[in-house]
UniProtKB/TrEMBL annotation:
<feature type="signal peptide">
    <location>
        <begin position="1"/>
        <end position="24"/>
    </location>
</feature>
<keyword id="KW-0732">Signal</keyword>
<dbReference type="InterPro" id="IPR006179">
    <property type="entry name" value="5_nucleotidase/apyrase"/>
</dbReference>
<dbReference type="Pfam" id="PF00149">
    <property type="entry name" value="Metallophos"/>
</dbReference>
<keyword id="KW-0378">Hydrolase</keyword>
<dbReference type="Pfam" id="PF10518">
    <property type="entry name" value="TAT_signal"/>
</dbReference>
<dbReference type="InterPro" id="IPR008334">
    <property type="entry name" value="5'-Nucleotdase_C"/>
</dbReference>
<dbReference type="InterPro" id="IPR004843">
    <property type="entry name" value="Calcineurin-like_PHP"/>
</dbReference>
<comment type="similarity">
    <text>Belongs to the 5'-nucleotidase family.</text>
</comment>
<keyword id="KW-0547">Nucleotide-binding</keyword>
<feature type="domain" description="5'-Nucleotidase C-terminal">
    <location>
        <begin position="353"/>
        <end position="525"/>
    </location>
</feature>
<dbReference type="Pfam" id="PF02872">
    <property type="entry name" value="5_nucleotid_C"/>
</dbReference>
<dbReference type="GO" id="GO:0016787">
    <property type="term" value="F:hydrolase activity"/>
</dbReference>
<dbReference type="InterPro" id="IPR006311">
    <property type="entry name" value="TAT_signal"/>
</dbReference>
<dbReference type="InterPro" id="IPR029052">
    <property type="entry name" value="Metallo-depent_PP-like"/>
</dbReference>
<feature type="domain" description="Calcineurin-like phosphoesterase">
    <location>
        <begin position="43"/>
        <end position="264"/>
    </location>
</feature>
<protein>
    <submittedName>
        <fullName>Bifunctional UDP-sugar hydrolase/5'-nucleotidase</fullName>
    </submittedName>
</protein>
Length: 586
C-alpha cells in the first residue's frame, strides 16, 4: 500500500506561508525531471489518442521509448514534463481485456505527469473511469466535467508545475461529445431517468467557453507564467461548437493548446484568441504515430515538433508491455478463419475514413454477424440488424483471422441484444444516423450499417431531426425524411419489402445503441426487450466467421461461403470494398 504524508503536515513541515498554501492546492508534488528553480528551457513531451496501441516495434514509438526520452532529459538535468490529452485506455484488445488497467500501469511507469480525460476513458462505465483516475500516479484535470448533484467539478480544472524558473499551468478540457461518443447511460442515474453528470458544452459553446475561461483566470490568480490547454476536443467540423479552435477563439489567456480527439497530425497551427493573440495549437495524430515535443524557451517563446521514431527504450516499461502483449496474444491468438479479402473501414481510393458516412464491406460483415447470430445461433426470428460505424475500428488485411482480429475490430465489450420495435422507430434511427451524410457531410459514429435491410439517403434534403444540446435524439424529422425507400428482407419470400411504419419488427444490435443511448439513439427508449446479453461484440463476430464454409477445416471468408449465401436474394458482396449496395447515397 502506498503511504503519503498529508498535505497539511507537508506544508507545516516545510513552513509554507498561508499565501503559498493556496497555490499548493493546484500544484502536485514534483516528479523527477521538472522541478528546477533556475531559468531554463522547458520541454513538454505529449501524446494523444494512443488508443492502447502498445505493440509497435522499434524504431516506432512505444511507452518504453517515451519513458526513455523523458529520462534522457532528466539525466541531463533539464526540466521536462510528460502529458497526455486523452483516449489512452480504449481501442484494442490490449486495453479492453483488463479495462485499461495495464495501460495505466504503463503510463505510471513511463512517468506521465498529467493527463486529461477523453471520451473513451468513460467506455468501461463511470465507476471504472473514477477507478482509473485513482490508479494513476499522475493527476487528471478537467474544467468542464461536473457532478450535477453537487454542482461541483469532479476533477481539478488546473494544475501548476514549477519548471525552468517558471510556473506552467495546464487547463484540462473534456469534449462534451463524451455523452454520445461514449455511452450516455453512464452519465445518468441507475434508472436512466436523469443525468447526474454533465460535461459542459452548450448549444452555442458558451458553457464550455465560460468553464475554460474561469480555469484560465484561476491559473493566472495562482501565479502561472505559461498557460497550456490540455484538451480532448479536436478540430473536426462535426465537433463544432466545441472544437479546440473555437475554444481558443472565444477565450483569452492560453499560450499553447495540446489537443486530441480528431486524430489530426498538427505540428503547429497558430490560432488567434478573443484578444487577437496567436496561440500555438498542436496534436500528434493517433496510435503513437508521433510524440509531440514542445519547447518553452527561457524568454517564454514556444516551439513544437513531432517525433515519429526513437531508438531508445526503458527496459522496465518494455518488460511490462511485452508481458501483457504476450498474455493477450496467447488468449486471443487462435486462428478462426482465413480470407483473400481486404476488409475496410477506410476508403481504399482515398485513405479517408468511410465507415462513419458510407457503406463498406466490413460494415456489412459486422452487421451480418449480428443478424446471423440471432437467426442461426439463438434461433430467434431477427428481421434487421444495425451496427454503428463508430463501433468498427480498423481495416483488416487479407490473411489469417483470430479472435484478436475480431477484438481489434470491435474492442468496446458491448453486448448484443434483440428488441421488438416499430417500423417508425427503425425509420427514426436510420434518419438520425444519416443526418450528416452528404458531399460536405461530417463524420458520425452513429452512421448505421445494416443487415436484412436496404435504404437510401437523399443528401439534397436538409436534416430536420430534433436533437438536444448533447446531440441526443428528441424527435422525428419535421420535414421530408432524408432516408427513403427502406426495405426489410423477407426470409420466406427472399425479397426486400417496403418498411411498414406501423408493423412490429425484431431488431438486433448492440446494447450501446439500442438500450444505452449510445451516439444519441433515444428513439428505442421503452421498446420491448426480447433477449439481452447474449454475447460480447467480438464473440458475435467470431462466431459468424466460424460459420463460413471451410477448406481443410479452416473457414474461408467470402460471400459464397457465408451462411447467409443460402438466404435467397440476400445482398452479399464482401469482395467489393464498398459493400453490397445496401445503402445508396443519392
Amino acid at each position: 500500500m502506498k503511504h503519503f504524508i498529508s498535505r497539511r503536515n507537508f506544508l507545516k513541515a516545510a513552513g509554507v506561508t498561508a499565501a503559498a498554501s493556496a497555490m499548493a492546492a493546484a500544484v502536485p508534488q514534483a516528479s523527477a525531471g521538472f522541478l528546477t528553480g533556475k531559468d531554463a528551457a522547458v520541454t513538454i513531451l505529449y501524446t494523444n489518442d494512443v488508443h492502447t496501441y502498445i505493440d509497435n516495434k522499434s524504431p516506432k514509438l512505444t511507452y518504453a521509448a517515451i519513458a526513455a526520452m523523458k529520462q534522457g532529459y532528466v539525466d541531463e538535468g533539464k526540466p521536462v514534463l510528460l502529458v497526455d490529452a486523452g483516449d489512452h485506455i480504449q481501442g484494442t484488445a490490449y486495453g479492453s481485456m483488463d479495462d485499461g488497467a495495464t495501460i495505466i500501469e504503463l503510463m505510471n511507469e513511463a512517468g506521465y505527469d498529467i493527463a486529461t480525460l477523453g471520451n473513451h476513458e468513460f467506455d468501461y462505465g463511470m465507476a471504472r473511469a473514477k477507478a482509473i483516475i485513482k490508479e494513476a500516479d499522475f493527476p487528471y484535470v478537467s474544467c468542464n466535467w461536473v457532478d450535477l448533484r453537487t454542482g461541483l467539478r469532479v476533477l481539478p480544472a488546473v494544475k501548476l508545475f514549477p519548471a525552468g524558473g517558471k510556473w506552467i499551468a495546464f487547463v484540462g478540457i473534456t469534449t462534451p461529445e463524451s455523452f454520445t461518443k461514449s455511452t450516455p447511460a453512464y452519465f445518468m442515474n441507475a434508472k436512466q431517468t436523469k443525468y447526474i453528470y454533465d460535461i459542459l458544452g452548450g448549444d452555442d459553446g458558451r458553457k464550455l467557453y465560460d468553464a475554460v475561461q474561469k480555469a484560465i483566470d484561476k491559473a493566472k490568480t495562482l501565479g502561472a507564467d505559461i498557460i497550456i490547454g490540455l484538451g480532448h476536443l479536436g478540430v473536426d467540423p462535426s465537433s463544432s461548437p466545441w472544437t479546440s479552435e473555437e475554444v481558443i477563439a472565444n477565450t483569452t489567456g492560453f499560450d499553447a493548446f495540446i489537443d486530441g480527439h480528431s486524430h489530426t497530425v498538427m505540428e503547429n497551427k497558430q490560432v488567434y484568441d478573443a484578444a487577437g493573440k496567436a496561440v500555438t495549437l498542436t496534436q500528434t495524430g493517433s496510435y503513437l504515430a508521433n510524440v509531440g515535443k514542445m519547447t518553452i524557451a527561457e524568454d517564454g517563446a514556444i516551439t513544437t515538433e513531432l517525433v515519429s521514431t526513437a531508438d531508445v527504450s526503458d527496459a522496465a516499461v518494455a518488460a511490462t508491455a511485452k508481458a501483457w502483449i504476450n498474455d493477450v496474444d496467447a488468449m486471443l491468438g487462435e486462428q478462426i478463419a482465413t480470407t483473400d479479402i481486404n476488409f475496410y473501414i477506410n476508403d481504399p481510393a482515398t485513405g479517408k475514413r468511410r465507415i462513419r458516412m458510407g457503406e463498406t464491406n466490413l460494415g456489412d460483415f459486422v452487421a451480418d454477424g449480428i443478424y446471423t447470430y440471432f437467426n442461426e445461433v439463438e434461433q430467434l426470428d431477427c428481421d434487421i440488424a444495425m451496427m454503428n460505424g463508430g463501433g468498427i475500428r480498423t481495416d483488416v488485411d487479407a490473411g489469417k483471422w483470430t479472435f484478436k482480429t475480431c477484438k481489434q475490430i470491435s474492442p468496446f465489450g458491448n453486448v448484443a441484444c434483440l428488441m421488438s420495435v416499430t417500423g417508425k422507430q427503425i425509420q427514426d434511427a436510420l434518419e438520425f444516423g444519416a443526418r450528416f451524410v452528404g458531399p460536405e457531410g461530417k463524420e458520425n459514429g452513429g452512421f448505421l450499417h445494416v443487415a436484412g435491410a436496404t435504404y437510401e439517403i437523399h443528401t439534397d434534403i436538409p436534416n430536420t431531426v430534433l436533437t438536444d444540446d448533447k446531440n441526443v435524439w428528441m424527435g422525428s424529422a419535421t420535414g421530408t425524411p432524408r432516408v427513403q425507400n427502406v426495405r426489410i428482407y423477407n426470409k420466406k419470400t427472399g425479397t426486400y419489402e417496403p418498411l411498414d411504419l406501423n408493423r412490429t419488427y425484431a431488431l438486433a444490435g448492440m446494447n450501446y445503441t439500442l438500450r444505452n443511448l449510445g451516439d444519441g439513439f433515444a428513439m428505442f427508449d421503452g421498446a420491448e426487450l426480447i433477449k439481452d446479453y447474449v454475447s460480447e461484440d467480438y464473440l458475435v463476430m467470431s462466431t459468424y466467421a466460424m460459420f463460413f464454409d471451410a477448406v481443410n477445416d479452416v473457414p474461408v471468408l467470402s460471400s459464397a461461403n457465408s451462411p447467409l449465401a443460402s438466404y435467397p436474394g440476400y445482398l452479399l458482396n464482401y469482395e467489393n470494398p464498398y459493400g453490397a449496395g445496401r445503402i445508396q447515397v443519392v
